[in-house]
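Worked example 2:
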Amino acid sequence: MKTKTTQTPLDLQPLATVENFDELAYLRANPDVKAAIESGQVNSGREHFIYHGKNEGRHLLFTPPLRKRSKVKKGFKTVLINTH
């Protein structure tokens, strides 16, 4: 049931362990497990991990953190206009 995942930095795709297990990240990294849940073959990603994924060396897939954008561009001033 193991599938190949897309290229992702290793720190965003760690090996799943009991200590770091995250359901959403597990399903993101293992679409075959998500499909197995949807078809009723398994109840959850955690169940799959406990009975199969742990021994198969399955990974998690975290999304990279979003970069915060500055709301004010350099060289511009924020002006508050009070109309009351």
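The longest helix spans residues 45-56. The chain has three helices and no strands.
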